[in-house]
Amino acid sequence: MTTEMQAGSSGFAGTAGRLITGWALLGGLLLLLVVTVNMVSIIGSNFFGEPFPGDFELTEMGVAVAVFSFLPYCQLVGANVSADIFTSGASKRMIAFFTLLGSLVALGFAILLIWRMYFGMLDQKEYDYTTTILQIPHWIAFIPILISLALLAVAALLTLLRDASILSKG
To answer: Which end of the chain has the smaller Cβ count within 10 Å, N or C?
Structure first.
């Protein structure tokens, strides 16, 4: 589903596409914030001898959350890494089959990751793991990551349905 198709879509697919796009943009803003914090820390360290406390912790958590926020968008618009060298001579039908298979694998991995990350979050909360300097609980970063994985599952389902429709048309 291209960005143009998302804008004109209505119903569940259109709403999901806009939500996924907005979530990816929020991830981009978070990444921009992480870069800003790092710049402030570098400038503070060089000019005032005092870095921003906990900048490494914020970078670690922020980048993890941002990367997960991009996954649903990449799935939705077909921007995942692919090995075109193997399919360069394949027919359109074979490529459609591989695309459908990729969407199925993405859906399976999204479901698997939601399941395991949810229990990982519960473990982090139960054992009260926090960052060293700022004492931010680790489990808090899992919440937007789980939302990203849920959106990845939705995106994978949408692409799976789209790919099945393309494959059935020949």
So the answer is: C
